[in-house]
Amino acid sequence: MNHFDIVIVGGGGAGLYAAMEVLNTNKSLKVAVISKIYPNRSHTSAAQGGANAALANKDKTDTVDKHTFDTVKGSDYLADQDAAAVLCEEAPRVMRELENLGTPFSRMEDGSIAQRPFGGASSPRCCYCADKTGHTILQTLYEQCLRLGVTFYNEYFILSLEHKDGKCQGITALNIKTGKIEIFPSKIVIFATGGYAKAYWNRSSNAAGNTGDGQAVALRAGIPLKDMEFVQFHPTGLRKSGILVTEGARGEGGYLFNNESERFMSRYAPEKMELGPRDLVSRSIEREILEGRGFDSDAGKYVKLDLTHLGPELITKRLPQIRELSISFEGIDPIEEPIPIRPTAHYSMGGIDCDKTGRTIMQGVYAIGECACVSVHGANRLGGNSLLEILVFGKIAGHEAAKEAQGFSTPSIPDTVIDKYTRYFRSLAGESQYERYAVIREEMGQTLADNVAIFRNAKDMKKAIEDIKTLRDRFKRVKLHDTGKVFNTNLINILELRNMLSIALTIAAGAYVRKESRGSHFRTDYTTRDDENWHKHTMFKLSKGELKIDYKPVTMGKYPLEERTY
Amino acid sequence: MDEKKEISFRVQRFDPQLDTGIYYDNFRITIEKGVTILRALNYIKDNIDSKLTFRVFCQAGICGSCAMRVNGVSKLACMTQVWTELETSSENDLILIEPIKNFSLIRDLVVEMEPLVEKLKNYYSWVKPKMPASEMGKKEFSISEETFQKYDQATDCILCASCVSECLMMEVNPEYISPVILLKSYRMNVDERDAMNEVRLKKVASDKGVWDCTHCYKCVEHCVKNIDIMKGIHELRHEAMTKGLHRSEGAKHAQAFFNDIKRKGHLVEATLIPRTLGIFKTLKMVPTAIKMFFKGRMPPVFVRSIPHKRYVKKIYKNLKKGNYSSKR
Amino acid sequence: MKYAYYLSCINESMTKEVDRSLDKLKTDLGIDFIKLKKGTCCGGSNLEYVSEPHYLAVNARNIALAEELGLDLVTSCNTCLMVLRTAKHHLDSDETTRNTVNELLKKEKLEYTGKAKVKHLLWVINEDYGLDKLAEKVKNPLRDLKIAPFYGCHILRPSKYLGFEDPNAPSSLNQLIETVGAQVVPYASALKCCGFHTLLVAEEESLKIAGNSLEDAIKTEADYIVTPCPLCHTSLDLYQEKALKGRKNLSRNSIPVIHLSQLIGLALGYTKEELGIHKHMIK
Q1: Which residues of chain A does B142 touch, with a Cβ-Cβ cutoff of 8 Å?
Q2: Does C20 touch chain B (CB under 8 A)?
Q3: Is the model's pTM score more than 0.80?
């Protein structure tokens, strides 16, 4: 049996940064990264646009304070201001560290890291590498982890967080390659499993595996989730596939047009125009479409993102991937024609409740990155702050965990948990099982997309909750067809669906009870922000298998509540 | 409405628990234009055979999980349109799906990727930062556009291993460094922030390394990110030759071309072998040489110089003087 | 029709039969190939990493020699083709390099302008000359022959610089084989590498590469392998015995490999001896 000081679940940017920081803090610690895919394939790679840091390379007047204020305002004042301050204070150091480690950032003429404007930001502070920023950051971190000799368990699927008397004991995981259930006793577990926006299934820009595994496992282990109703819809997904067109495309000067050839953002964000925050731009596009000013096609209604005026040189140099995706998936070359786009579920602001060091309420358990809710993004995340979050809090949590690990006693996990899961898997293949996972999954995505998306109301959300509850019942009869041990992706699909169903309910239930509009959560029956009653975090906990909702105050700081306009 | 068609997917199958060897399954499905190979496979898995096994993740061409051979060619299933593939199918409306080559099979389309990770480690595929730990994060390196351009394209690599799958040297020698690692080595070695250039270069220029590439350009042709991998290989060879690693057989071989053009204009094939391999190894070639002699295929030892040789010599002389601005 | 003909080192030494066969055919076909005696070795896909400036300068010179005659440049070697075309691409797309190189060529009163095209013999026959015309010239249709085409790498890849046909599904050699009346046998190795360029530094591996292709071709029961590249020929013919050593269960022990110019020669009625086929290592 493997005993560890620290087990990091998830090998994206947050997990890898944490692993690196653990070893940089204390080389003698036994640390492992457990990931359901090869770490270099993680969804961090899909982040195109960049990461914010007030380096003031481009705009000499930029400051950490301005960045912090933009973040708090962008969050519609739901972010905890102490956490947002840490995020923005640490940003320049972390970005320079990444640069020192070999990240191939694009450069300004003077050789410093290049920065571009991004939505909701008062200065051009988004550090980038063309439109492959996340990819290059992920590769760099993976390379550094290999250099430092981090132990990787690749293609392991987490089953449970084990704990005793409120203390972490480690995890159990399925070795996908062998089908063996393995135990990882560990003093500390850091969740870095990414987001849950794939619960919207085909109406999401997310990777197939962003199924909220960490959040679901934590919830089952009694750790609360926070602000789950806040799901960001990215304004510019490709019409047919939902694949993302980076905000960088608008940062570089792209325009949005409706079918009247109007740059309609002038009516919604006269000052910031296309570079308004994501929630606002998504709502504006959706409004244009609802009011008949969108374009129509077999693949659905859409508006146009026009880059043609930027010219071939800029497009091929700064947005090459966007051009490739647009040609591959829409058959449209953005140099020649505008790109058909519509909003797509993209990012989950909510996640495992933790503080600004990544600690959760359970001793030895941390959460970082998109799977966590610190909260730095509140009700709406700013573009360029997600990559930043995984780096800053990956580093902090790695450091904190390394310092803390030695103080904890040796954990133990009884072998009986293995039998529990063996029995569960066997039952899934039983004769009374008949439901098809793909059908349940599709219906789950559909009901979330139809009823808990950009414009929400009580009636729709109530329906979503009922639908999800029915789907959870049906899931009890889901059929595992593949009973093989080796690389059983049928089993993984089912386990992921189980996690997504837990998460889907928190999204819908949290949205239903929040009777106001804030950030990404916009209700047509409560159209304004209600600070008096709703300036608070939603907390989700499982109690005897039932989801319970509670609240927690928002930590304020130097920025008082204000109306949010752009 | 978009065009629709009934298409057969002929998919290679293998379950190590049940099968002694690989076999093929045919899945016939109706799909509309605009669907990718990966979406078609997802459809088959979700609706026809949930045991069909393949890796899938980002579905947008950036994670590298779904590299497989479509009609015999390694590519990303998520970026490949079914309709486009139909044009190159050997049989009408049939698409052949197989795992990438040069890795051991785990199941169906899933192959063992660990050897690639091992090679990343063995060849130091990382930047060893020049910045001392105490200074880390305090300041940026200043990187010129010119330096950035050297590694920019190489950092597009997503480790999908299509190039490894297409590499013929890999097929005959699994220990070979492989195109992707050569690319990574190049990318690290031109990075000014890296502190272990020499160590890496020595490793790369050793046995089973950069000199073993046959320059077949398969890797370049099949790179899903259109990276000019061969440029990296050439640059590594150039670097090896300029940094004193010119005693390897590959380096000596290349040097012979350089020298002969100057001396004769043409290559002196007869002495190419001893100049590359040295006398000892050349002796092993004697039996072949004798056969060649009797067939009249023996290259002449004394090659007549080309007319105008002096002009070529002049070019060499002027280049040596350095009145040529190299792009390097 | 008139072309400047590039003399490849290997065809001047080890595979002399390539150009000797072509010398015979050209009158029958009515194509004039003016040999560029002043041309140098292209560097064999090696020179560029010894010194890129030298590689660009000597190949600019090679192409300029054709331009001096006002002709396009033709070669019978895949690697020469690839090297010349790649150099041409760099020269054509970069004025500074072009000017520097021309400075170096001045003494010899040469100038590289980029107007001469660089082509393979196979392309010239297929496209400029035309297969219909070739068909008319066929005196001895090779009706009974089954032929395995072996394209070689550098006539296809990198397609960015070669670009004559789809590198994954080329047809030029197949069509030519059919034009002379023979039957094309499909096999898995038609587009593979012959291993030539690593024969000296990684002999064992290179022989395996060649051996695998030869084995594939033997399985098809083809009478000949035909290749448009003398380097592939060397790998597949000169080294065949070594490459197939120890391979069991083959329907036959060897397979003869002939050059493109010899294939056409046979169809035009020349004997094997006249074409030098008897001088190959494998009969």
Answers
A1: 110-112
A2: no
A3: yes
